[in-house]
Amino acid sequence: MESRVKSNSQLRRADCFGKVDGQLQRSPSVIVIGGGMAGVAAARALHDASIQVVLLESRERLGGRIHTDYSFGFPVDLGASWLHGVCKENPLAPLIGRLGLPLYRTSEDNSVLYDHDLESYALFDMDGIQVPQELVKKVGKVFEMILEETDKVRQELSEDISILRALSIVFERKPEFRLEGLAHKVLQWYLCRMEGWFAADSDTISLKCWDQEELLPGGHGLMVRGYLPVIHTLAKGLDIRLGHRVSKIERRYNGVKVTVENGETFIADAAVVAVPLGVLKAKSIKFEPKLPDWKEAAIADLGVGIENKIILHFENVFWPNVEFLGVVAETSYGCSYFLNLHKAAGHPVLVYMPAGRLAKDIEKMSDEAAANFAFMQLKKILPDASSPIQYLVSRWGTDVNSLGSYSYDAVGKPHDLYERLRVPVDNLFFAGEATSALYPGSVHGAFSTAMMAAEDCRMRVLERYGELDLFQPVMGEEALSIPLLISRL
Ligand SMILES: Cc1cc2nc3c(=O)[nH]c(=O)nc-3n(C[C@H](O)[C@H](O)[C@H](O)COP(=O)(O)OP(=O)(O)OC[C@H]3O[C@@H](n4cnc5c(N)ncnc54)[C@H](O)[C@@H]3O)c2cc1C
After folding, report:
1. Which domains does the chain have, with CATH numbers?
2. Which of 89, 175, 364, 376 is 20 to 30 A removed from 247 (C-alpha atoms)?
3. To 10 degrees, the CA torsion angle through 339, 439, 362, 143?
4. 319-337: pLDDT as tens digits
5. What are phi and psi of 445, to 5 degrees?
6. Model's pTM, two decimal places?
7. Which protein residues touch ligand 1 with a CB less than 6 Å away?
8. 141, pLDDT greater than 90
9. Is the peptide bond before 289 cis (omega within 30 degrees of 0)?
10. Which residues are annotated as a binding site for substrate?
């Protein structure tokens, strides 16, 4: 990677950005806060539009919730690993295509399991007995019908309720959907996977808004060589300061001043705030003056869930040659899901992915205990399983740099919170997955909000310098016909 990445210790230069001899340089400048997909993509776009950019990242690595680890000798993703929407409409498709990064498609469009279809899998009960495929398919159809019925419930009710509450109303109305024995456990497994998609439990997910996100066509493809090359490509040549945790953002009529934990300050015309929703919720960054009430309310009301990965590396493959393995149980909390990386990437690796309360509980364990917990789930399916030789455990919920895995619609809260989180406040622009009304909780969602923030920010700073060039939008997009912004006073 050729980006000019500087760690704290290497930094000897003046502690101001865009300042020469105490005077602001007559050159547009922007500070980008956060080096995940949104921050890196926004910085790239602004840099390419000839704006001076510095990117401040709290960790000693780039990528944020894209975290490809190479310690096994091959890439494995502890954060995002799927491209949701393998199609040319996906804003990341041109870049991934140009880099020649291979994808392994795990599902086509409209699967009840989102990122998998029911083609290559094996579900087991707690006694290690495989669930017949016909039963899994049959229960999948019932689950789809139940979800359709929840839509009717939604239309009847004026107030919002949780998905779980809606399910119980459906069961009261249609007792034939109440399944018994093994079929009930398989239904719980479907619910568990749905909860995994939202990184939240069904008693916290909004019935009104749960299907408001847009799914791009083309199904879901695993990034076989990991997601990090995309970040590194976007970061090439940028001024990036790792180990720079922002603690204060002051906005004035003529610029922004950003303070880092060690007291260092940076000054520029504007800033793009691309830190996770969890970090904003924790108020570990002080805004001066404080953010408007509507923005603070959006931060407080939008849900942020947890999904984690426990990655088990084995000496050799002893499990069936299917895309995923699962354990069904009485409750969705007790169900398990393992992604088989051997099928997709050829490595003897299984990825256990707990979500919601289960993920939260597992985060209380040590790495060793968490890996052992995952292995014990596997032993239920395959009693002769040999122990892993290496493991990796993510902690997205308690990591101070993320404080959650991704956003979701909480019960009783409107879907327009994502848009409110995105709307700029003076010369502060917001980007990141939680600011994407269309594609929340995704890498391409984070990327597309970065493009919006960068363009809004570019217009704003160039306006100040009288250098508005309407024919050079960021990232070489075609000049669009943009409607006039008219408000009624
Ligand atoms: C386990 C898991 C699996 C996922 N799977 C998928 C998937 O398969 N496909 C998909 O599309 N999406 C997936 N996602 C979601 C996806 O990873 C995120 O939506 C996306 O990466 C978010 O990008 P971002 O730039 O908004 O935030 P982040 O990537 O979190 O970037 C924010 C950055 O801000 C930094 N930061 C925090 N605080 C400060 C501070 N005070 N000062 C400076 N910097 C700070 C952080 O260190 C971080 O680098 C997954 C997420 C998780 C956790």
Report:
1. 29-66+226-304+409-470 (3.50.50.60), 113-212+307-393 (3.90.660.10)
2. 364
3. -70
4. 999 999 999 999 999 999 9
5. -65, -45
6. 0.92
7. 33-39, 56-59, 64-66, 79-82, 84, 245-246, 274-276, 279, 285, 307-309, 394, 396, 401-402, 405-406, 432-433, 441-443, 446
8. yes
9. yes
10. 352
